[in-house]
Amino acid sequence: MNVLVLGSGGRENAIAWKISQSKDCDKLYAMPGNPGTAQLGQNLSGSPLDFCRVKQAVLDYSIDLVAVGPEEPLVRGLGDFFLADPDLKDVLFVGPCAKGAALEGSKDFAKQFMLRHGIPTARFRTFTLETLALADSFLESLNAPYVLKADGLAAGKGVLICQDLAEAKAELRNMLSGKFGNAGSRVVIEEFLSGIEVSMFILTDGKDFLLLPEAKDYKRIGENDTGLNTGGMGAVSPVPFVTAEFRNKVTDRIIKPTLRGLQEENIPYCGFIFLGLMNCGGDPYVIEYNVRMGDPETEAVVTRIDSDLLHHLAGCARGRIAEEKLEISATPALTVVCVSGGYPQSYRKGAEISISPDLLGAKGVNIFHSGTAFSDSGQLVTSGGRVFAVTANSCVTMRSKEYNTASEDFVRLIEEGRTACYSSVDKIGFEGKYFRKDIGLDIIRYLEG
Ligand code: AMP
Ligand code: GLY
Question: How far is the CA of 225 from the centre of ligand 2 (A)?
Answer without folding.
Answer: 15
